[in-house]
Write a structure and sequence with these properties.
- The protein is an alpha/beta fold.
- The chain is built from 16 helices and 14 strands.
- The protein has a 6-stranded parallel beta sheet with strand order 7-6-8-9-10-11.
- Helix 4 links the parallel strand 4 and strand 5.
- Helix 5 packs across helix 6.
- About 40% of the residues are buried.
Length: about 375
Amino acid sequence: MVIVADENIPLLDSFFDEIGAIRRVSGRELTAAEVRDADVLLVRSVTQVDEALLRGSRVKFVGTATIGTDHVDQRWLQEQGIRFACAPGCNANSVVEYVLSVLSLHAERLDIKDWTDLSVGIVGAGNVGGALWRTLSRLGITVRVCDPFRESEEDSDDFGSLDQALGCDVVSLHTPLTHTGGHPTYHMLDRQRLAGMNENQLLINTSRGEVIDCDALLDRLQASHAPTVVLDVWEHEPEINPRLAQGVWLATPHIAGYSLEGKVQGTEVIYQALSRFLGLPARKQSGQFLPEPPLSKLAFTRSAQARDAADTAIRACYDPRRDDARLRRTLRLPAEERGAAFDRLRRDYPVRREFSSVKIQLKGTSRSLQDQFRVLGFKLKL
């Protein structure tokens, strides 16, 4: 059995070497010729999987180690009898921690002592947005959620319209990219909606670049009273607009979900799906392959202030300013080299571990501080 796989999927050998012969390829540059003799195709979001890629191949199973599926023509796969699997929720926690780190920096920047003074509008409450909603609510932050599909099925006072979500102090986007249906998300934040945002607001996009009309966003950032913007996703990746990147507060190369745990869980999910498809036992789990984290413990004494302690722990695990600096260095390259540099930042991304990999030692600290660390996902040693 031949398995063609994106070279950026972690632990390919650990999970799949007993199933078939693995051939690693560049996901961005994958061609029909490279996949023609494959039985299994494993991709990430940079590969467009459709008739043009797979027509005439012998592929019977396609797996994407990502939560998004807009790069896959699922209808065509189904018509051809090709089994498809994705990894919903695999990196949700990683994206939540990205947003929390951004909020930590934002609160410090504005000298906000208490996160609960902020209101957060979450647009899209699927695996990622839903996880963020739960975490922020447990931290005591006021949340307004826009998700027409969930709202029609659930009863919660947190649901509101898109305009209500866009009126919050912080707006975090977590929608899939859709062009049709009752609630299409392509250019959902258009020129008119962006004009309604002001200098007191923070806009974060970790979903899909095309959810925002980025030409309109660039114009808005150059106008008066513009909001503060954090972009992890971009229109026309990897050829991102350097003027837009220079105009936002934080610019990162589509890595919000790139924690090691998130990436490995994505691999595990498609391994399990392929094992079921082939009728094989799924004996391997991601936990058995995770290495010891470089940072394993932080200690705080009774004199620690809750906000300062949380900021210290969050940024010790992940500080998006490092990724921002790496991306901005690529903007100095000649235009024809920037796309490849963007992809290299993702391919060669340094190991980033989630909060759960760090044990927090608390000596004589308050109950509220203990509860805060638990909500954030750290392990506690009292």
